[in-house]
Structures are given as C-alpha cells and as structure tokens.
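Appendix B. Worked example

We walk through a single record from start to finish. Start with the input: the chain for DNA 3'-5' helicase, Kitasatospora misakiensis, length 756.
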Amino acid sequence: MERMQEDLLSGSPFDGHQDAHRPGHLAAGGGPDAVLAGLDPEQRAVATALHGPVCVLAGAGTGKTRAITHRIAYGVRSGVYQPQQVLAVTFTARAAGEMRGRLRQLGADGVQARTFHAAALRQLHYFWPRAVGGPVPQLLERKVQLVAEAAGRCGLRVQRTELRDLTAEIEWAKVTQTGPDDYPAAVAKSGREAPRDPAETAQVYRVYEETKTRRGNIDFEDVLLLTAAILEDRPDIADQVRAQYRHFTVDEYQDVSPLQQRLLDQWTGPGGGASLCVVGDASQTIYSFTGATPDYLLGFRTRHPEATVVKLVRDYRSTPQVVHLANGLLAQARGEAARHRLELVSQREAGPDPVYTEYEDEPTEAETTARKIKDLVAAGVRASEIAVLFRTNGQSEVYEQALADLGVPYQLKGAERFFERPEVRDAGVLLRGAARAGSDPVTDGAPDLAGQVRAVLATRGFTPEPPAGSGAVRDRWESLAALVRLAEEFERGRTAAGQTTGLADYVAELDARAAAQHAPAVEGVTLASLHAAKGLEWDAVFLVGLTEGTLPIIYAKTDEQVEEERRLLYVGVTRARKHLTLSWALSRSPGGRASRKPTRFLDGLRPGSSAPGSRPAGRAGRGGVEGGERSAGRRVRGPVTCRVCERVLTDAVERKLRRCETCPSTMDEALYERLREWRAAQAREQGAPAYVVFTDATLMAIAEDVPANRQELAAISGVGAMKLDKYGAAVLSLCAGEEPEGDPADVSDGQPDEPA
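Next comes the structure step. The output line below is what the pipeline stores for this chain.
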C-alpha cells in the first residue's frame, strides 16, 4: 500500500507543487509548438488532443509518460488549460514525482500530479470539517496491528505471516467495495484463492472495521471511500471540486480498482468524460489480486463513444528481437484483454537474439547465470543495468548466493534479503539452539542433516508439501524450503569432499552466507520479482525459473488467472532493452528427477518447440505491424504508416490500405469495380466464395496503389506468393487498363488471404 506522508499538507487541496509559481519558468521554453518537437506522429496526436474524452492505448516502451506530459504542457502553454485546473493521477509516489519533474521541465508548473490516495487525502482534510465536522480521523499507516487485534477478539490464533494475508484480503474487499457480509460470496464468485476460511476472514474484517471506527481511525482505503462519499452526499462540495479541476489525466488506467473508478467518476461528474484522458495497456494488467481490473480501460470506448483513441506502438526501449518475442507471447493469449493487445514496433537497431537455456538443476541455473552476469560486467555493461527476474521472492536466495560467491554486488528490490526475512531469522535461532543442544529429542531420529533441519523447522509449521494458495503463508514456506534444500546441498558437497557434516557445521555455513550477503551494494545487479519489476527497465534481463508450476504459478487455476501469468512474463520480457536470457531447470536439486517442463508460454517461441494447438512455431507473433525475425534471413519489418498522416496503423484493414479509415482515399473507383467483376468470375469458375480469391480490403488496396509490376503487387498486404503466381498477371493487366488474357486460374487451393 502506498505511503503518503509527504502529502499530508495543510491548506487548500488545490495547492500546486512548491515550485508551482516560480516566475518566468513557463515562458522559458518558447511557444507551445516547441512542446511538440521531437514527438512521433502518435505522440503528437495525443499531445494535441486537448479535449476529452481521450483514451491512449500505450504499449511497453512506447513513451506514454512523454506523450501525456507533453499533452498537459501543450494545453497549458497554448492557454487551453490553466495549470491549477489540471489533475494528473497515477499509482505510485515515484511515478507521480517523475511526472511533476517532467512537467516542470516542460514549463507546466502548477499542475498537480499525485497518486489517487494523495489527491483524495488532501481533499478529505480540506472538506471534512465542513462536511462532517470535528477533527479528521487519524490515518492508520499500518493496519496489521489492528487486524491482529481483531483476529484475537474473534478467538483466532493467527501467525505473523498469516496476518499479511488477512490484511491483504481486507484491502481487496474494500477496494472492490465488498462488505464483511458479502465477502464469502464475492470470493466464491471471483475464483479468488482465499488464504483461510472466508467466513473467518469476514468475521475478522467486521471486527476490524468496528474497532477502527470506535477508535476514530481510518485506513488508506477509507481515504478513497470517505472522499467519494462526501462528493456523492454533498453536491455543493462536488461542484467546488469540479469547478477547480477541469482536466483529468489518469496514468496506468488498466490498474484502477472499482473504488478508484468510483472516486474518479465523482471528480469528473456527469458527462465528465469531456475532461478526461486515460492511458494504459491491458496487456500489462498484473495486479488483479489487489482488486485492479482492466475492464474500465477496455470499456472506455463503450462508455464514451465519442472518445478519441490513440494507439502508441512504436517501442523505443527494446530491440526488434526482444519486441518480436513480446509480440509472440501476446499472439497466443486469450480473453478480453488479448483481443485489445497492441503489437509493438521496435524503433531500435537490431540486437542479439533472446537466449533460451535449459539446465539440469536450479543451482546450476543460478551459478551459470551469475557467471554470465560477471562476463557482461567485464564486457562493460554496468551492474545496475542488469536484472535477474523471478516469479516468487522465495527464488531469490540461490541467486543472491551465486552472485555473492563471484563477488558480484546486487540489490534486492521489493523484498527483504533472504537472510533478513523474519522466518529465516527465526529459523536460524532455532537451528543454532538445536546445534548447541547436541542431543535433542526433535532431531535425534532424523537420518541425515536435511532430516534434522526439517524436524527443527517442523516445530514452526514447516511441512513437506507446500500450503495451498498464494500469499505470505506460501512465501514463508518457500523460504523454509530453501533452507532445507541448502542443507541437502551442503551435506552432499561435504560428503563428496570426504568431510563429516553436523548441524553445527550447517549453522556455521548459514552464518557465513548471511555475512557475505550483507555487504552494501550501491552499483549492483537488481534481483526482483516480476511484479516488482513493473515500470523498470535494464540493458540486460535474465528471466529465470521459467517452469510449469512456477510460471504459471501452480495456484493459477482459472483461464483468466493463467492469462495474467502470461502477462506477467510479457512484462518481464519488455523490461529488457538489448540482452534477454530465458532459462529453466529440469530438477530442483542436483541429481534430482528431471520432471520439470519449461513454461507453456514459450511453446512455439523457443527453438525446438511447437505452438499450442500444433500451430507452426513460425506463426507465433505474426502481425502486420511487427513480424520480427522468425527465421534466418527473414528481414524485420518496419511499422506500417498511413500514407496521408503518417500515423502508425494497427487495424488490419487500415494496414492493407496503408491509410487511416478517416484519411482521404486515392482509390481508382473504376479499377476497383473491374477488380470486383474479375474476382466474381474467378469465384464462380472455382465454386468458391469471392474472398478466397481476394478480400474487399485487398482489392481496395490494389485500386489505391495501382501496382505496375509484380514487385509492387507483392508489396500489398494480402497478396502472398501463391496468390501472386495464380492471379498476378491478370491483376496487373487490369491495373494497366487491359483485359486479362487466358482462362481463369486453376482451381483455388481454398486458402483465403488475410481476413479483412
């Protein structure tokens, strides 16, 4: 949950940034058109669409922040927007800070760029005395303590790690606007994997709310709930907010929750789409477990039929090889989000192909990955421009150790270092105690070192099989399981060296490893989960542990949950600028049974694999915008742009015509009619539908281009090699104003060209 202490400011909720009114800054960069310099045609279309509703569908690495900040700056500098009437909202304080910085550089000081919670909190503080009266309730910065108290009042014994899961469930319920009484039914309907009995969670949720209210506290979800409620109940206050804010921009719109959308609706008011610009990418929706949903982004055009929709697909981050793999991943996706996927078009020079590597076991995978990283650093790649990304935080330890062994500094993002995790520290205390005791009833019956470690950890709930579901309980189990695996590997190594092994030796090894990994790492390789990597990028990315059961994670049961796991891998792939390595291990430990399989998401994309449904592997990721290098010698295709306005085209029909549907046509109407008559005759002769010969869109493209030779005809989308041989001479004759010679072509093979 976001921490908004820096936004607990007094005074009006409409105050701008502290530098908002720095004199002379607005005019420093020249006229408004200077803001448009350097933008590509699609970014310029965003920047000049000053009146909403506007929906920007922005793929990874396409410059969405650049587009929307230039839009705001262009509106301010052209006089259409007053800075103090603009509110831009996003999801993290870091992103909001970056947006404020860019706006200042563009001469748009005074615009508020905040998180949803920060903007709502300022309004709540300002309007509470007038709407409710009395002091504003005190904000709970951490609700875990109160959740623990509520669980105790319900007579439930809850471990510390389970409290995180309970807290997350309460947060999910609140952002989806689900009350305690409705929580069990909502969990069942959503297919959500509840960490414990939903009835128990509902009971804790109810007591938590009652206790919080009685003590005059609010939590972060209440900030949104209460602000929305005040605006709903007090039209005068709502009118004041809407009079102040005339122009709204929402970044990462695919991540909004029902509660955030409710607040946004109150900010914009009835018909408020006229002042709204949203930007997002449904293919990067990876936080549904927190209540985020892409439905509002996907349904924006339905709610606002008059909306301007701009697609950003020019990828300035990644090489064509990385982009091709990313497109291939989404080409196999299913569901509503997949229908709206964007096919990226790399704007960078070609780079190395992604590397796919299969290892015998996890330690070998980690050690080899660490050596490859060391080689990259030696070759001049900065350590801070390299990342190792994994599905769960429990996978980090083996990579922490492998990098430490080679003296490669690293930094762990989004999680505590392995040896600093509470469950690992607690386990260390227990193991040290058992080692000092020597003979211990807990460990005496164990056959080996790993058995002793399992026995000790069992006193804290460790089980041979993982718990069901996700969350903190599963994370805790993964950490303890890693300690057991370390014991197995440690004993195996000592035995091979002819050394005896005891629990005391193992504890000494743990202490040595912990000490080695406590060294500060300022310029270090990033270790992060795929979720924590969202919004970041590196020159080199290693995606590791890509096996079935890990990605997709074993508890992804429904089709939508599996598709979200695919999107998670997509996010990981699109973090890489140039170097991308994907790897998996066939077994967990050396000498173990090689029973694992690489993730299904790479089927048809990695060498030697076939696509799902037995589709040829080379078809994966094929599209009119960016085909990628599917085989040796095949060139990377560039973007298909409108011949009139130069906008990148993503619609299939528009790509065939090489112009926007709304741009003026240069089609030779008479030629088009002759082509249609000829096609009808061909279809009758073959006893096949007309589209089997050529679709209407292909005929329109021919009538617009009027090709003069086979090469020009072959360049038209929908005219493949087979169609060129079969119909090329006849079509070129028609284009030259002549009648085709000879009889109709041989009977068609029945394969239509690309659908219109």
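Two observations about the output. The chain is about 45% helix and 10% strand. The longest strand covers residues 576-587.
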